[in-house]
Design a protein that fits this description.
With 92 residues, the protein is an alpha+beta fold. Helix content is 46%, strand content 12%.
């Protein structure tokens, strides 16, 4: 599990390095290089910068706790825990 977490939860710089390594492997493979050339595909050495806005993810309404109070899940602060949280009883 620790190995999976190191890939899925890596920071942006680690992911960029992984992509660059993959692009290098494509270039080193004669078959891949040929296909990429035929299709006119080229990979840059750095990611493109885009102007963007981050939208508020909001909350999920999950169900009721033992006291009848609504259970919510804050996606923004706890997004990685969502797979566990959605397994609790939900509203019908």
């Amino acid at each position: 599990m620790r190995d999976i977490k190191s890939v899925t939860h890596a920071d942006a710089q680690v992911k960029v390095k992984e992509c660059l390594r993959l692009f290098e492997r494509f270039a080193q493979s004669k078959q891949c290089a040929s296909i990429l050339s035929e299709q006119g595909v080229e990979f840059g050495k750095s990611p493109h910068r885009v102007k963007a806005y981050k939208l508020d993810a909001g909350n999920l309404l999950m169900g009721k706790d033992a006291e009848g109070k609504a259970i919510t899940h804050d996606i923004e602060c706890c997004g990685r825990d969502i797979d566990r949280r959605v397994q609790c009883p939900m509203y019908e």
